[in-house]
Specification:
With about 425 residues, the protein is of the alpha/beta class. It contains 15 helices and nine strands. Helix 9 packs parallel to helix 10. The structure holds guanosine-5'-triphosphate (GTP). Guanosine-5'-triphosphate binds next to helix 9. It holds the Pfam family SRP54. InterPro entries: AAA+_ATPase, P-loop_NTPase, Signal_recog_particl_SRP54_hlx, SR_rcpt_FtsY, SRP/SRP_N, SRP54_GTPase_dom, SRP54_N_sf. It catalyses: GTP + H2O = GDP + phosphate + H(+).
């Protein structure tokens, strides 16, 4: 199929390489300082401040351990691993209600002003509504194409070709675009067709591609801990995803430990600490610039000792074409295996939907180097390129566990083929 559409592909992508995200600057490795001395990042704190606190009853159930002080200096080599700082979550303090202000006396007529009526809270949208809203840029790009191709026209070879172009432009991939066009042609050729019929066929075909890959992330209760390693390119949402997952796991009553393996970025460590506190998870963090594989090793040892259900390991962002950084990722996995040969039990690759075609290469290379077991696609809100998820599913068949449509704790949900297919096709309910 790729051969058939080569001319077409070149028209859309200029025959060149797909656009790559800007190279992120090399993270600066500063001399190790104790984690506690790291200046909190205002942006990270502001982002995490939006997180809903874990239910009080969950927080009350947390066992409070004594926090260990960080080592004064951090070894760069893996052996022997130094003990990490294990900061134990503290229950989130319930803020004392502020005393009601006394009515202001303004003379003889001192009656307090009538309070302004409270604004009606906006009704909370359900997940499908948020998914539809998030995917609106992707679905309206498709919808506009459908309207312009099919308005008052019969389904002939020309309209089919134009429609296939619309699908390819929406990043759905050549194979899926061809399958959708073929399905539309069946029994409808030379007949008038309306937009709703096209949208139904589109949703049906997308659903067929996504159904086999929509698989939940399964936590093996026999593993103590079930180790989840989160990998991906810079800024794809690893740390945020770990925070959101920890909230879900804690809400299910599981004990969780977070390992702040992004030892390049102080903001990532701070962000993770806030998530740990809010969700009632334990956290293992070290100084900026510390050896990430040593930290992963120590975190796993601590999680085993504590009988923790799930250990979520964050890693620094890395571009898939940076060989030395990918080798570092291999080392982290090797070191984890020394402690538990069956670990990591899940390797999640976070993909930023706004990246478009480059995401395919990320799946290819991270899959090969890190043995990715499942995908999390973030930032489906605010992109017209959400179709890339379909192209990835068709090409790699890797499980898609979660998708993200925003920065809030509720904006990450298990992936549903049917919901995604309807949302991207612009079908209302
Ligand atoms: N709009 C939107 N923003 C998101 C989503 N997921 C994450 N983000 C934001 O993306 C930015 C980067 O997220 P991080 O979690 O820090 O990404 P990271 O992969 O850990 O970054 P590095 O450590 O630099 O590799 C943050 O501002 C997040 O709030 C999403 O689904 N939608």
């Amino acid at each position: 199929m790729a051969e058939e559409k080569k001319g077409l592909f070149r028209r859309f992508f200029g025959g060149g390489k797909p656009a790559e995200p800007e190279l992120a600057p090399e993270p600066e490795i500063v001399s190790p300082t104790p984690v506690r001395a790291v200046e909190p990042d205002a942006e990270a704190i502001a982002a995490a401040a939006a997180i809903e606190p874990a239910p009080t009853e969950i927080l009350e159930a947390i066992e409070v351990e004594t926090a260990r002080e960080p080592e004064p200096s951090e070894p760069q080599a893996f052996e022997p691993p130094a003990a990490p700082a294990v900061a134990t979550p503290e229950p989130v303090a319930v803020a004392e209600p502020a005393p009601a202000p006394a009515p202001r006396v303004t003379g003889f007529f001192s009656a307090p002003a009538a309070p302004a009526p409270a604004p009606e809270p906006a009704p909370k949208q359900n997940w499908f509504q948020r998914l539809r809203a998030g995917l609106s840029r992707s679905s309206s790009a498709l919808s506009d194409g459908i309207v312009s191709v099919f308005t008052k026209r019969k389904l002939d070879n020309e309209t089919l070709d134009e429609f296939e172009d619309v699908l390819i432009q929406a990043d759905l991939g050549l194979t899926t675009a061809a399958a959708i066009t073929a399905a539309l042609k069946k029994g409808r050729f030379d007949k008038e067709i309306d937009g709703d019929e096209v949208r139904t066929v589109l949703a049906d075909e997308v659903r067929k591609v996504l159904f086999p890959v929509a698989k939940p992330l399964v936590i093996d209760p026999a593993r103590k801990p079930h180790v989840i390693l989160v990998v991906g390119v810079n800024g794809t949402g690893k740390t945020t995803t770990i925070g959101k997952l920890s909230a879900k796991l804690r809400a299910e009553g599981r004990s969780v430990m977070l390992a702040a393996g992004d030892t390049f970025r102080a903001a990532a460590v701070e962000q993770l600490k806030i998530w740990a506190q809010r969700t009632g998870s334990a956290i293992v963090a070290r100084a900026i610039g510390a050896d990430a594989s040593g930290l992963a090793f120590d975190a796993l040892r601590d999680a085993q000792a504590a009988g923790t259900d799930v250990l979520l390991i964050d890693t620094a962002g890395r571009l898939q074409n940076r060989t030395e950084l990918m080798a570092e990722l291999e080392k982290i996995i090797r070191v984890i295996k020394k402690q538990d040969p069956t670990a990591p039990h899940s390797v999640l690759l976070t993909l930023d939907a706004t990246t478009g075609q480059n995401a395919l290469q990320q799946v290819e290379i991270f899959g090969r180097v890190a043995g990715v077991t499942g995908l999390v696609m973030t930032k489906l809100d605010g992109t017209a390129r959400g179709g890339i998820l379909v192209a990835i599913a068709a090409k790699y068949g890797l499980p898609i566990h979660f998708i993200g449509v925003g920065e809030g704790v509720d904006d990450l949900e298990p992936f549903s083929a049917d919901e995604f297919a309807r949302a991207i096709a612009g079908i209302a309910a």
